[in-house]
Amino acid sequence: MSFNPEGRDRCLAAERTDLAWHRSGLSMLALGAVTMRGLAKPLVVTQNLALGACVLGLGAFVWSLGAWHAKRVTRLANRPTRTADLVPVAVGVALVGIVAFIVAARLPN
């Protein structure tokens, strides 16, 4: 049996990608909530609140970016993907990485 790339179900691939975006956004939201609250319930520290709020914001951004991408893929499912279709997602992922790097660099050792 040979591999036929045109025979793949493109809808399932798009659905898996959509689920991965949702899973990433939810995990970042959970991480932000845990960071704000603290695992061992220490005293509330302003730094924890700021870091947790930043991670919550990034999680919400990732989740909304994934929802936007899924809607766009569903709407444009009848044509091949162009490079220009991936630019907003690439910029969004790069932005999340840059913000995460800045936050990590600002934390004290």
Structural description of this entry:
9% of the residues are buried. The protein has 109 residues and is mainly alpha-helical. The chain is built from three helices and no strands. It has one domain. 75% of the residues lie in helices and 0% in strands.
Write the layout of secondary structure elements.
Blueprint: H1 10-37, H2 46-75, H3 83-106
Helix pairs in contact: 1-2, 2-3
Q: Number of folding domains?
A: 1
One letter per element, helices H and strands E, the order comes to HHH
N- to C-terminal distance: 56 Å
β-strand percent reads under 5%
- Uncertain regions spanning at least 5 consecutive residues: none
Shape: elongated
Main β sheet profile: none
Look at the structure and give the mean pLDDT: 76
Descriptive key words:
single chain; 109 residues; elongated; 75% helix
Task: Tell me briefly what this model is.
This protein has 109 residues and is an all-alpha fold. Helix content is 75%, strand content 0%.
